[in-house]
C-alpha cells in the first residue's frame, strides 16, 4: 500500500510516461499516416512495428532503474527491524508499478494503430495491444531484476545498455534470425524483441492478401514481397508461434521477477 501511495503522491513518473506515450503515439500515427500496402509500405510497417518494441523497451527500462537503489537503505532497516519480509516489499513495489507500465503502452498503441493504417480488425488490434503490454512487462521485469541485483544506479544502467543492444540486434529486424551463427543464436530466446516482433509481424501479415509490387515512385520493385506469407517467410518467422510467443513472454516475466526477488533477498541479508 505504501508503494502505491508513494506513486500517487509523487506522480512524476506516471505523468512523464503518459505524456511521452501520448506524444509518441500521435507522432508515429502522423509519421506513418495511412501507409499504403505497397513495397515501400511493407518496409514502413516493419519499421513501425519494431519501433513499438523499441519505444516500450528503452523508456521503460531506464525509467524503472531507480526501483531499488532509492529505497534500499529503508528496506534493509525495516526488514532487520522485523517490520515486514522482503517478499511483501518486493511484491508491493512490483504491483505498484504494473499499472504505470501497462497503461502507457496501451495508450500509445491505441493512438497510433489506426492512424498508421494497420489491419482494421478488432482481433488484430487487440492482439497488438496484448503483445505490446507483454513486451513492456518483459522490459519492466528485466529492469527491476537488474536494479535489484545491482549495487548502484550507475551499475544498473551500465548493464542495461549493452544488454538491450544485444537483444535488439537478435530481434529479427536488424539480423535475419536464420543467419545468426549457431553458437550465439540461443540469445534470441532471451529477447522479448524476438518474441514480440515475430508476434506483431505474424499478427499483421498472417493470411494477408496480395500486395502490389509497385514502389511509391510507380516503378516495379526488383525484389517483391507479394503476400503476407512471403514477408513472414523472408523473416524466418512462423504464424504458428504467435500464441506461443505470448505465453513465453508471460513465463519470462514471472521467471525474471523471481530472479530479481532472490537477488533482493541476498543483498538485504548481506547488508546486515
From TrEMBL:
Kindly indicate whether the keyword Transmembrane helix belongs to this entry: yes
Q: Membrane spanning segments where?
A: 49-68, 94-116, 128-147, 153-174, 250-270
Q: Which UniProt keywords apply?
A: Membrane, Transmembrane, Transmembrane helix, Transport
Q: Does the keyword RNA-binding apply?
A: no
What InterPro entries would the database entry show? ABC2_TM (IPR013525), ABCG_transporters (IPR050352)
Note the superkingdom of the native organism. Answer: Eukaryota
This protein's membrane topology, according to the annotation, is: Multi-pass membrane protein
Chief subcellular location:
membrane
Where does the record say this protein resides? Answer: Membrane
Any one cellular component term from GO for this entry?
Answer: membrane
Domain ABC-2 type transporter transmembrane intervals = 2-205
Name assigned to this protein: ABC-2 type transporter transmembrane domain-containing protein
Taxonomy of origin reads: Eukaryota, Metazoa, Ecdysozoa, Nematoda, Chromadorea
Amino acid at each position: 500500500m505504501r508503494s502505491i501511495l508513494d506513486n500517487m503522491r509523487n506522480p512524476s513518473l506516471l505523468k512523464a510516461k503518459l505524456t511521452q506515450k501520448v506524444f509518441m503515439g500521435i507522432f508515429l500515427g502522423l509519421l506513418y499516416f495511412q501507409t499504403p500496402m505497397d513495397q515501400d509500405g511493407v518496409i514502413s510497417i516493419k519499421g513501425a512495428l519494431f519501433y513499438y518494441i523499441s519505444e516500450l523497451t528503452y523508456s521503460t527500462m531506464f525509467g524503472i532503474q531507480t526501483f531499488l537503489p532509492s529505497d534500499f537503505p529503508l528496506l534493509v532497516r525495516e526488514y532487520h527491524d522485523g517490520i515486514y519480509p522482503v517478499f511483501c516489499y518486493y511484491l508491493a513495489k512490483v504491483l505498484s508499478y504494473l499499472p504505470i507500465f501497462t497503461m502507457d503502452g496501451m495508450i500509445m498503441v491505441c493512438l497510433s494503430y489506426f492512424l498508421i493504417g494497420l489491419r482494421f480488425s478488432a482481433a488484430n488490434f487487440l492482439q497488438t495491444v496484448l503483445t505490446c503490454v507483454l513486451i513492456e512487462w518483459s522490459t519492466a521485469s528485466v529492469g527491476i531484476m537488474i536494479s535489484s541485483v545491482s549495487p548502484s544506479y550507475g551499475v544498473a544502467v551500465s548493464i542495461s545498455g549493452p544488454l538491450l543492444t544485444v537483444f535488439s540486434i537478435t530481434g529479427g529486424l536488424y539480423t535475419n534470425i536464420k543467419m545468426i551463427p549457431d553458437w550465439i543464436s540461443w540469445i534470441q530466446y532471451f529477447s522479448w524483441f524476438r518474441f514480440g516482433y515475430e508476434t506483431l509481424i505474424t499478427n499483421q501479415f498472417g493470411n494477408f492478401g496480395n500486395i502490389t509490387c509497385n514502389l511509391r515512385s510507380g516503378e516495379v520493385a526488383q525484389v517483391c514481397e507479394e503476400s503476407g506469407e512471403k514477408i513472414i517467410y523472408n523473416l524466418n518467422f512462423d504464424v504458428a508461434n504467435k500464441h506461443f510467443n505470448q505465453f513465453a513472454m508471460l513465463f519470462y516475466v514471472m521467471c525474471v521477477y523471481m530472479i530479481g526477488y532472490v537477488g533482493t533477498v541476498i543483498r538485504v541479508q548481506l547488508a546486515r
